[in-house]
């Protein structure tokens, strides 16, 4: 999984802390995609992280299936608000109901996370944008 994330220039810091909230996709015995959830339970929120699909499989639905799993898993855990950071996948997330948000929209527990602090410090320079979606059962 780390090799796939490295290929897509995605962070692997603290990845091991959240592996129980990840899913991976395989085809022909090789890992072709992954995605997961970093939890901020005190704010009923979670960060969609480490979403990656082999480049030759973009547009085939693998990423959508992974994200659907992450969202369903989040709802099972009582998460109402999903957040994420992206550089180049905003159109993908917009098609699936995510909206652009400011970093100020992140709840306090998420603002203490490693990823948030790095994006707050360097995100504009790197072209990182923040997005969010309400995934509460009633939405």
**Unreliable residue stretches:** none
How many E-type strands?
Answer: 6
Rg over CA atoms, rounded to whole Å, is: 14 Å
CATH class: Alpha Beta
CA distance, first residue to last residue: 32 Å
Tell me the major beta sheet: 6 strands, mixed
In percent, how much strand structure appears in the residues? 25-35%
Briefly say what this structure is:
The chain is an alpha+beta fold and 139 residues long. Helices cover 32% and strands 29% of the residues.
What do you see in this structure?
- The chain is of the alpha+beta class.
- It has one domain (2-134): Aminopeptidase.
- The chain is 32% helix and 29% strand.
- It has 5 helices and 6 strands.
- It has helices at residues 2-7, 62-76, 90-95, 108-111, 114-126; strands spanning 22-27, 30-40, 45-53, 81-86, 99-101, 129-134.
- A 6-stranded mixed β-sheet has the order 1-2-3-4-6-5.
- The N and C termini lie far apart (32 Å).
Topology:
Elements: H1 2-7, E1 22-27, E2 30-40, E3 45-53, H2 62-76, E4 81-86, H3 90-95, E5 99-101, H4 108-111, H5 114-126, E6 129-134
Parallel strand pairs: 3-4
Antiparallel strand pairs: 1-2, 2-3, 4-6, 5-6
Offer a few descriptive terms.
Aminopeptidase; alpha+beta; single chain; 139 residues; 6-stranded mixed β-sheet
